[in-house]
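Run folding on both entries below.
>entry_1
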Amino acid sequence: MDIVIFGTQAFEREFFDRANRTHNHRLTYFEPNLCDRTARLAQGCPAVCAFVNDRLDREVLGILHAGGTRLIALRCAGFNHVALDAAEELGLTVLRVPAYSPHAVAEHTVALMLALNRRLHRSVARVREQNFSLNGLVGFDMHGKTVGIVGTGKIGALVARIMGGFGCHLLGVDRHEAPECLTLGMRYVNLDTLAEASDIITLHCPLTPESYRIINARLLSKTRPGVMLINTSRGGLIDTRAVIAALKTGRVGSLGLDVYEEEADLFFRDLSNEIIHDDVFMRLLTFPNVIITAHQAFLTREAVEQIAQVTLRNVTDFERGEIPADNRVTRQLMMR
């Protein structure tokens, strides 16, 4: 099957070309993201492969459908950027990669925690300038601290296991209590209680209308002074302006982000010679207690290999009329 892959990064091609040896699809790579201006590049192509920052709203889906596209193959787990109602009305099938390497994201989450706690980003910068002073680099023992995990699916459960290994107390928020987390001693509470009791809050829930800006001024007012906040899930979970205000007062003591609500115009691009016009993002960069990585939590060899394999297998299954139910995205899935 002909597949147009939008928003392609150089590192992805190797993995997709290798995975395609067993599928023999005809792959066309485009570096630009999918949007209303680029959608017509898929004219006559039955399958389009999209990533997290590609636009899949009603307008774009309409253009794709008119051009003959029948399948949207997401090479990611999240699907909040897809207008699922429009996709169903147009008869477009949407498939995703529900799990590639939860270990990759969980490990990156903990790396952000450790780097923020021990000020590793500042320490490395100092030593490169031959400044060996330890002033301002005092951290805290992770052991005995309370970690609040919002969303205890595969990734959240792995974070719980790692933090349990540090000797942390675990609190969780989720509609469903994970047996593995209960075994680790996690106590499930409501979000307000988690905010009030946690030294570290880390987000691992999907972005839905209910979870949009779940971290907001009201909730931040309930947190412990100096709380560490980590988000490696979706940028829209956080009201960034409210977090900036909390950073200024010290209510948020440190912030680690791998995602940002307006990241589509920033991440996966080299903007080192350009002026960034996003004043909110640039304000975040001024804080010494903030670390931002550019949506790289998933980025391990194992994860990218799995993404490529599952994405192309989804297309093959669709071509054969054997659509995998677990990988299909519907409006009902969003409401779970």
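>entry_2
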Amino acid sequence: MMIKIEHFLKKKIKVVTATFLFVVIPAILTAQADNEIQVYSSPITSKAVTFVELHQNYTFKGSDYLADPKLAHWINETLEITRGFGSNFELGFYTFTAITPDGKYVFLGNHIRPRFTAPASWGWKVGASLSMEIGYIKPDGQNNFIMDGELRPIIDKTIGKIYLGFNPNIGFAFTGADKHAEIEPQFKTYYNFHNKFGIGIEYYSSLGTFNQIENIHNQEHILGPMFNLLASSNWELETGFLFGLTPNSNHQILKLLIGRRFGK
């Protein structure tokens, strides 16, 4: 029975992926969104398991402050490969690419991400892990690479059928003209339907730096519905549509994450 379910899920995910890549992308041709839009959960990749993820994001409508609305129209494609080492540590590697508004395919950079999780022996009432990411990126695809990264505490809890996840993220720019440490809290919750899928909401924000919190119009706040596949331990599928709540936010973002675990 489980083999039949696994085979069915693989076929469904392949259909979703093919639809996105060969129908949606050719139709829009160009797009813009962040390289990775995801609220992390606390469990890490198991020892000797490799987890491959493809993050695909598209902004239908960007910030109100853009001189030309088409400047928001990128396709962002991020390949993430994570390997589990031991029971409390994983190491992830990212390659960022995109298609620009004028149809050019560009390489945007690489990050490396070690992550540690709190051992079960500590007896904490919540799940907790700490992710530290660093690398080089071209923020707009044109100028020089800068060194950037993030420090991401991850706290989550499942209460009955309800999952709650919080990432009080801090983003850093270590080089370039705009060095900063930015406050970027993120939140996710969903209801678990029979351990098959979850439906809920995600929230992302950028409040400003530790030196200066921006006024509400210049902050970024995006919120929207999301869907999580829960029926397979090997496959991951997460998608959502996010709406901007402030003038400086990207207003309409489609996200799609597809992942596969190997070696389990």
